[in-house]
Amino acid sequence: MASQGLRASPEGIRAAKTALTDKTWSQHKLAAALGITRQPVSKFFAGESVSRSCFVQICQQLGLSWQKVAGLPEDLVFEQSGKGRFKDADLDTLVKEVRQKRQEKIQYQCNIIQMLDIPQTVKLIDIYTSINVLEEINNLQWREIDDWLKDFKSESNFNQLRTYKRERKLTGLEAVLQHSKLTILGKPGSGKTIFLKYLAIECNKGQFQPNQIPVFIRAKEFAEDAKNDSKFNLFDYISEEFLSCDVEKELTKTLLTHGKLLILLDGLDEVSIEEIEKLTIEIRSFTQIFYKNRFIISCRIAAHKYRFHGFTEVEVADFDQEQVEVFAKKWFVAVASKYKEDGQARGNLFINQLNLQENQHIRELSFTPLLLHWICLVFQGKNEFPLNQAKLYEQALNILFYKWDEVRGIKRDRIASNLTLAIKKKVISQIAAINFDTENYFLSKEKILELIADYLQKLQLQLDNEAVLKAIEVEHGLLIERSQEIYSFSHLIFQKYFTARNNVENSQAQNWEYLVSHMTEKRWREVFLLTVNMLPNADEILQLMKQKIDLLVANDERLQYFLTWLHQKSSSVYTRHKAAAIRAFYLVCVERSLHHSHRALIYISGYNLEYALVGNIAFDSDLALDEFLYSTIACFNDVEFAFERNLKDALDYAHAFAIAFNEAIELVSTSKLKQALQKLKTQLPDLDSNLERFREWWQTKGKVWGKQLRYFLIKYRNIGYDWEFNEQQKELLQKYYDVNKLLVDCLNSAADVSPTARQKIENTLLLAIADIEKLHNSNVS
């Protein structure tokens, strides 16, 4: 039996007209907001009979009680067709019965997921990692660039600024429990879909919202089906879903009317422009009619335009370190291994490798779940990360540019047929390079639009600049709006990648000169490595880098003299290793002996340069001996500093000095040097018996003892000189080491370097200008 219509009472009509005036709406605008024709609205205000559903929609849109407007008791509910009202006990039984009938369908829809580039399916519960959400939406907050810069101390903490420091996080489950109507926003690949599917599975099992029945709807599929059927009707869509599980339409309406459904609508951003308006009108209408139900809608944050009445909006936060580890460990068990123990071991190896300092650039990407999955996939092949960084980022960007949408069958609306992916990449490269050069990591919308306009004008493309920015933001998630009209790259490494890409696309002599001028700036390191990695041939820029490095210390006579000694000492060592690697080894030894451990400003923590040249050379006996002798000098400096400052850990430094000196003596094979060092050892008081006595001896005889040690090291090993560098020279020597390390890393990273250029650079590495000229002249002759 069809439901009877309702009429507004005279008092109800007056209240409705007042509400309409307060909203500054016309009857026509009210009809448009509801997605219905003008006729039922006119009849409503004329006091004529209107269908129950339209009557309730109109009242809810105006913020009025439909029962009061109709002059009916407040507790009146819809009658059930032919079945009367349901009691609470009957409803609970109905929920259990329907959920049981729907259980298999929900499992089919949500429990099995197809992961990017993984041929087999994976159970969602085996990979699911809980998410956090932000209660404040970043791009709705008013914050200036200065507000972000206050917390931006260095590049290393860029990724800690993924959200504003004062924003409060909730777990996803907490947010869902607190709000019956929720819009979940997030960047591409942030885990929105998996979270909604997880809720459906948990509700299906009765472990989450046990008094409700889950309905998972992919917005794209609903819109496509609705377009084919020429009707956008969520009630019919859900009814047909339930009917396929042997649930009658009348019972579906009963459940909806009493708020017994958990409706999960996923991927609003995936719906085409032609259909999105119709869909949002239908969602707005449906959620107002069946307002008692629990609704969760997901959408990419950059595509979010529509706000629904009564919905709270939250933003998915990036993974933190703990979530990265949980996901990775689950991933290697669920995806990469047949046996749990093997998967756990590989997961632990992955985490250990990811947390290494040299993999900081990869770790930066891991806070996005989609990219973390891909990083795990890359790692599993060889149990290590690839050395080719440019290829690594290119593949990650391909996922964001098209692959993630492609595998899910999503075609984004293009703002123009001539805005190709290649052009978008060039636009992004321009934005990245110009702002990285000026050390701008946070960009105003006005500045970005200006850069887009300039570049499109060069290409003679007539496009809407805002639409181009929105396409880059929505489709690829490379630029994110951190607060209102303040943008940054989603990952700093992507800004560096596109800066390097811009260098390669504009490779000219003057550009190389400009790039090389930034060699001593640490923030440019990845840009250099990526640039040489992308160049078809890197000879020109590498040779230019070498020339500039040599000129860095060319005018300092003391450092030139030091480099001459470095060459002489290294040449006296008989070894199978490259001469440049031996020079690097002794450069590090000297640097470490110059400074005590409390001075970290100019201190090299390891033998990175010679390791980059040939790997580990510590097994050579001569080098091992000299390393311990230099360590003795370094420890001597530490003890002297500790006693001068009366430090509490002076005893620890004294013990370290004694250990280094004893091990050095053990390694000495030359009898005269061994005798000399043993004689020096007898002059040292017993450290363990009386520290104060050792301190007194050090203060009165320590400096003389140290000079004797240096005398014997110079005489027998040609090491141990007190170079008496001033602070400026020490800093310059550190800078010289750093840029040489960069040059060697570029040599190792370059996709193509000619053998001639490589040999020339390596042969003259860490040489004084005079020695370089000698070598050049001998080669010419």
Automatic annotation (TrEMBL):
It comes from the Bacteria. InterPro entries: Lambda_DNA-bd_dom_sf, NACHT_NTPase, NCH2, P-loop_NTPase. Residues 180-272 form the NACHT domain. Coiled coil: none annotated. SUPFAM superfamilies: lambda repressor-like DNA-binding domains, P-loop containing nucleoside triphosphate hydrolases. Pfam families: NACHT, NCH2. Signal peptide: none annotated. This is NACHT domain-containing NTPase. It comes from Nostoc paludosum FACHB-159.
